[in-house]
Specification:
Blueprint lengths: L2 E4 L5 H9 L3 E4 L5 H7 L5 E4 L7 H5 L6 E4 L9 H7 L2 E4 L5 H16 L2 H9 L17 E5 L3 H12 L3 E5 L5 H6 L2 E3 L2 H7 L2 E4 L13 H4 L7 E4 L8 H10 L4 E4 L19 E3 L8 H19 L2
Parallel strand pairs: 1-2, 1-3, 3-4, 4-5, 6-7, 6-9, 7-8, 9-10, 10-11, 11-12
Helix pairs in contact: 1-12, 5-7
Length: 305
């Protein structure tokens, strides 16, 4: 019988897809590498999320392994070279969480622009901080969307509905798709200079590591807001802290960090002009259901030929 190891939480409908195909499903949540090495010895497929890591050692220990499925977008926790050498298929669900991440990006933006998190903290402290909680509207402002893929498209679509001017940066510009959301392409430097909001939606690759650094933060308006719901290392954290402390930009909304979990005493946690969430961009019921079902269906398709 085909055996599938589910090594991270997935929606129950994904498990149903696998069982309805006649597969045996074994569930072990986030095993460490040593335990994973033992678990994969007799499995045909494995499902993970952003963890656990499927290392070369894990792959080497799985003689029957034919599919590695990531219920989500990135593949950075999977040794792709080792999988390729063995002819193992690696699949994921890149579109499953696009809307969820886009909506969180706007949630962060609203929280920063209207100082919602700050006001909430003050209310809980018994402080009526009405004057200090003065915010700004989004209508008529310029939003710069860095990365115009699935998520960037959804962000631009929402921004257009709010009456914002949409600037786009992508190394592979698609003009017709930009027209659908009322957007236009610009260079990264021009986008940073002209935008009231800059929101990042790029993968973490060599070209995007610290792409938002001290030099580029200094290009932004002192009234600008930076949103990062992509990958933490796209932004140079030390430079961002300095920018927020010294007023190069007005604020930031962050869902991802160079170090996760974010340490309790991290400088970002001490700043009132930052809103922080714990990497929850894809953490909606709908996104998790789509991600799990999509990878389960791909596993069934591959293993049944």
């Amino acid at each position: 019988m085909v055996k599938v190891l589910v090594a991270a939480p997935v929606h129950e409908k994904a498990v149903e897809v696998l069982k309805n195909a006649g597969f045996e499903v074994v569930y072990r949540e986030y095993p460490d590498e040593d335990r994973l090495v033992e678990l994969v010895r007799d499995v045909d497929a494995i499902i993970v999320r952003s963890k656990p890591k499927v290392t070369r050692r894990v792959i080497k220990s799985a003689p029957r392994l034919k599919v590695i499925a990531r219920a989500g977008v990135g593949l950075d926790n999977i040794d792709l070279d080792a999988a390729k050498e063995r002819g193992i298929k690696v699949v994921n669900s890149p579109g499953a969480s696009s809307r969820s991440v886009a909506e969180l990006a706007f949630g962060l933006l609203f929280a920063v622009a209207r100082k919602i998190a700050f006001a909430d903290r003050k209310m809980r402290e018994g402080i009526w901080a009405k004057k200090q909680a003065m915010g700004v509207e989004l209508e008529g402002k310029t939003i710069g969307v860095v990365g115009f893929g699935r998520i960037g498209y959804q962000v631009a679509k929402i921004a257009n509905a709010f009456g914002m001017k949409v600037l786009l940066y992508d190394p592979y510009p698609k003009e017709e798709r930009a027209k659908e959301v009322g957007g236009s392409f610009a260079s990264l430097e021009d986008l940073l200079r002209e935008s009231d909001v800059v929101t990042l939606h790029v993968p973490l690759v060599e070209a995007t590591y610290h792409m938002i650094n001290e030099e580029r933060l200094k290009l932004m308006k002192p009234t600008a807001i930076l949103i990062n719901a992509a990958r933490g290392a796209v932004v140079d954290t030390k430079a961002l802290v300095k920018a927020l402390q010294e007023g190069w930009i007005a604020g930031a909304g962050l869902d991802v960090y160079e170090e996760e979990p974010l340490p309790k005493d991290h400088p970002l946690t001490k700043l009132d002009n930052v809103v922080l969430t714990p990497h929850i961009g894809a953490s909606t019921v709908e996104a998790q259901m789509r991600a799990g079902v999509q990878v389960a269906e791909q596993i069934v398709e591959i293993l049944k030929g």
